[in-house]
Design brief:
One of its GO terms (molecular function) is nucleic acid binding. InterPro entries: MTERF (IPR003690), MTERF_sf (IPR038538). This is Transcription termination factor 3, mitochondrial. Belongs to the mTERF family. The chain is mostly helical and about 350 residues long. Among the domains are: about 50 residues, no CATH class; about 60 residues, no CATH class. The protein is built from 19 helices and three strands. Helix 2 packs across helix 6, helix 8 crosses helix 10 and helix 14 packs parallel to helix 16. The radius of gyration is 33 Å and the shape is globular.
Length: about 350
């Protein structure tokens, strides 16, 4: 017979444990004549052993007992009681998206609407951000609540000092909400990096920052890697790299290997020259497999012709862009069904 000694803090704890254990044993111990195991339970009031049969039926109400769950990271339990959350919802903030960022939930729950939210909303709106876009702004960058309003105002004034117009700054802040999280020193270094490494003039720097504000705050390592690939592996010279940067900055934020694969296919397989790519630089932003599928299909139809000086010319953007339905209807002149059957043969 196995004897185990269990210490309980209170009598209620003892009874709860005992009832639950006996209920489980009744279900799992077969009635085969085997002597039941005894437990030596200690009375918490006088420390005297108390022997109870583990087969005794449990008649106590255990509905109040529940398993322990780790805390969940969501706003649902707080919305009805929190003025801040209710006001954020009115602004159009997507709380569901914010819940996916574990560190954001405690940040938002600590906010006071009057002290933290309202001043930021007023600041952005007075500068020119439409009220119906502020919710999107906060959804993308909830960490803006960690920034001091005076610092953000100084960062905007810095852009004014660099001859950015209010329209330019408004576009920058709206398209890239994280811009205001960067200190003046960091932004100044970023703008200087692009000006020096791509020999940009002042107006070209402003144009680049306005067209693609995300590029200015993007990972510099990624930008440098893409620049190296475009220049050294693809064979574009410095002036051509600058042209690609100003016309299609998205190329410099794409995956390096992906851009390189796309270039190698359109240049080596399709025979597209550097000059043609410079005229349609957005072709480098499309995935190689998509271009390959459509080009191969046009080859089987005898329509893979990309020289604009010859009949039946197929524009590169039409080849890579749009849906499969658009491609089949406007370029291949076949049904989507035929195209899908072809893809199964690849």
């Amino acid at each position: 017979m196995l004897i185990k000694k269990v210490q309980f803090a209170t009598t209620n704890h003892f009874h709860t444990f005992f009832r639950c254990l006996s209920a489980v044993i009744q279900k799992r111990v077969p009635d085969n004549g085997i002597e039941a195991t005894e437990l030596e339970l200690v009375n918490p009031q006088n420390d005297t052993p108390m022997k109870k049969s583990p087969l005794e039926k449990c008649t106590e109400d255990l509905s109040e007992i529940s398993p322990y769950f780790m805390p969940t990271f969501n706003f649902a339990a707080y919305v009805n009681k929190s003025e801040t959350l209710q006001e954020l919802l009115k602004l159009g903030v997507n709380l569901y998206k914010l819940e996916k960022k574990v560190t954001v939930v405690p940040l938002i729950l600590k906010l006071d609407f009057e002290k933290n939210v309202k001043p930021l909303v007023t600041f952005l709106h007075e500068f020119g951000v439409p009220i119906n876009e502020i919710g999107h702004f906060i959804t993308k960058n909830p960490f803006i609540f960690k920034e001091d309003l005076e610092n953000m105002e100084a960062r905007i004034n810095y852009l004014f000092s660099k001859k950015f117009t209010k329209e330019m700054i408004l576009r920058i802040v709206t398209l890239n909400p994280f811009w205001l999280n960067f200190s003046i020193e960091r932004i100044d270094k970023r703008l200087g990096f692009f000006q020096q490494n791509y020999t940009l003039k002042g107006n070209e720097v402003r144009t680049l920052a306005t067209i693609s504000p995300k590029l200015i705050t993007y990972n510099l390592r990624q930008i440098k890697a893409n620049t190296f690939a475009i220049k050294e592996e693809m064979g574009f010279d410095e002036d051509e790299v600058k042209s690609l940067l100003l016309s299609t900055p998205k190329i410099f934020m794409k995956d390096q290997n992906g851009v390189l694969k796309t270039f190698e296919f359109i240049h080596k397989t399709m025979g597209i020259s550097h000059d043609m790519i410079l005229k349609v630089p957005e072709i480098l932003t499309f995935r190689e497999f998509r271009i390959k599928e459509r080009h191969t299909y046009l080859e089987t139809l005898g329509k893979a012709q990309y020289n604009p000086r010859e009949p039946n010319y197929v524009a590169l953007v039409s080849l890579a862009g749009g849906s499969d339905a658009d491609f089949c209807d406007k370029v291949a002149k076949t049904s989507v069904h035929s195209f899908n059957i072809f893809l199964k043969t690849l």
